[in-house]
Design goal:
Elements: H1 7-21, E1 31-36, H2 43-56, E2 62-67, H3 72-81, E3 88-91, H4 93-101, H5 122-127, E4 129-130, E5 134-135, E6 138-144, E7 146-150, H6 151-156, H7 169-180, H8 196-203, H9 220-234, H10 248-255, E8 261-264, H11 269-275, H12 277-281, E9 283-286, E10 296-304, H13 312-322, H14 325-335, E11 338-339, H15 342-354, H16 360-375, E12 379-380, H17 389-404, H18 410-428, H19 431-435
Parallel strand pairs: 1-2, 1-3, 10-12
Antiparallel strand pairs: 3-10, 4-5, 6-10, 6-11, 7-8, 7-9
Helix pairs in contact: 1-3, 9-17, 9-18, 14-15, 15-16, 17-18
């Protein structure tokens, strides 16, 4: 049977073939590091980092290349195909898993110091381990979502505190809508946007895939979750554009005063203070909405060593320098993110607790960042970075859209999603092949 491949999958297969068939490239004079959208804001940080590296490794200069978010996958695949891949690259977990599934990343396990795992938060360290390819990356920086709440709208709706569990959302959304005419929350269903809905399904008790990578979500928990979101939308308690606009729209609605609660990171508070100071003045940070067990989601950025690199051990040393406690604590402070290093997280929390803000705006950001650090203690990567996870997201979101728009019943939509995923999974991971 002929399987139609997308252009991106063809390029990925070709890149993997290049890795396997073309051997290793000739040694380069420099160690090449690629990062994602950190220049020019962090030029000083990387200049200091490179100076520290040069002191430790004077014979091994580093060339730092920073790429826009939207171009890294295309450029990395092209570089792998041309046998000019970097030695160390900043990747998000889904793309790292996809590349690792084709043999494109180094298993770092034999190269790591014996105490490496103890240096990082266990939940994110485990998230860098692929069941087939081994430890494919070193965790770097993290973000967690908080609930940013418009206290003025909650007061108008006579709501003392925002919801903390998904089963509290319908009553909250109805009260906000009835008393203020605004919306309680925004969660995008656009297939190529945020993975927050996938994470929410997991928090609501939905198992996404089974051990054979086949659909496990067509279950009682899955049917309840699909019905939950379908009814919320059809009752008019979600903005209509959740099916057509991405999560950025949530921030726009929050800044305009039309949304009572936005799920976003502490790093967005400064933008709200700049763009909507009146709204920022009545904004409070609260713990994120979760499922019954209180587990929050953490988003992870990591550093991976392409298998094509001729300097794998040296590249790992650079990754360990980037992610040591001192460097992570500094980067987390400057970028307003969270570190994956256990020691750095303790340093950041202590610093925030001792900080003496000079303005209400600075104190608002300090409190949000401190809450983020506390939230991290009960957070994990809720959706593993399986190969094909973006395809799964597209299938589930598209079918949920159909249910919300009244084109099919929610249970039928879920069943259609399961069948579509299983067809894809059967072509990519035949059971006979996996069991052989």
């Amino acid at each position: 049977m002929t399987v139609q491949l997308t252009r991106r999958r063809l390029l990925l297969f070709a890149a993997a073939a290049g890795l396997a068939a073309c051997g290793r490239r000739s040694p380069a004079p420099e160690l090449n590091l690629w990062t994602l959208q950190l220049a020019p804001k962090f030029n000083r940080y990387f200049a200091d980092l490179m100076a520290a590296w040069t002191t430790l490794h004077p014979e091994d200069p580093v060339r730092w290349t920073d790429l826009p978010w939207g171009s890294v996958e295309r450029k990395l695949l092209a570089a792998v195909y041309a046998r000019t891949a970097p030695d160390l690259v900043n990747l998000n977990p889904p793309f790292a898993a996809n590349l690792a599934s084709k043999g494109g990343l180094t298993d770092l396990t034999p190269l790591l110091p014996s105490d490496a795992a103890e240096r990082y938060l266990p939940s994110v360290w485990q998230a860098c381990r692929d069941p087939d390819a081994g430890l494919i990356a070193v965790p770097w920086y993290l973000t967690v979502r908080l609930s940013l709440v418009n206290r003025e709208l909650l007061d108008q709706a006579n709501i003392a505190a925002p919801p903390t569990r998904w089963d509290e959302i319908p009553a909250f959304a109805r009260q906000i809508r009835k008393r203020t005419g605004r919306y309680g929350l925004f969660l995008t269903m656009v297939p190529d946007d945020s993975a927050e809905m996938l994470e929410t399904l997991v928090q609501m008790g939905v198992s996404l895939l089974n051990s054979e990578r086949r659909a496990a979500f067509n279950s009682p928990a899955g049917r309840r979750a699909f019905q939950f979101w379908t009814e919320l939308y059809q009752e008019g308690l979600l903005p209509r554009e959740v099916v057509s606009q991405g999560q950025r729209r949530a921030i726009e609605l929050f800044q305009s005063g039309d949304l009572a609660m936005a799920a976003t990171g502490a790093e967005f508070l400064r933008s709200i203070q700049t763009n909507a100071p009146g709204v920022a003045a009545v904004t409070e940070s609260h713990p994120p909405v979760t499922g019954a067990d209180g587990t929050a989601n953490v988003a992870l950025m990591s550093l991976a060593v392409p298998r094509q690199s001729t300097k794998q051990a040296l590249a790992l040393q650079l990754a360990l320098l980037l992610t040591n406690a001192t460097n992570q604590a500094r980067f987390a402070t400057e970028a307003r993110v969270l570190p994956s290093s256990v020691e750095a997280l303790a340093m950041v929390r202590s610093q925030l607790q001792q900080e003496q803000p000079r303005t209400p705006q600075q104190d608002q950001i300090r409190q949000a960042r401190l809450l983020s650090a506390i939230t991290l203690e009960r957070a994990r990567v809720l959706v593993p970075a399986w190969p094909g996870i973006k395809r799964l997201q597209k299938i589930l979101y598209t079918q949920l859209q159909r249910a919300m728009l009244g084109q099919v019943e929610s249970a039928e939509a879920l069943g259609a999603a399961a069948m579509e995923w299983d067809r894809y999974a059967a072509s990519r991971w035949p059971l006979s092949q996996r069991n052989s």
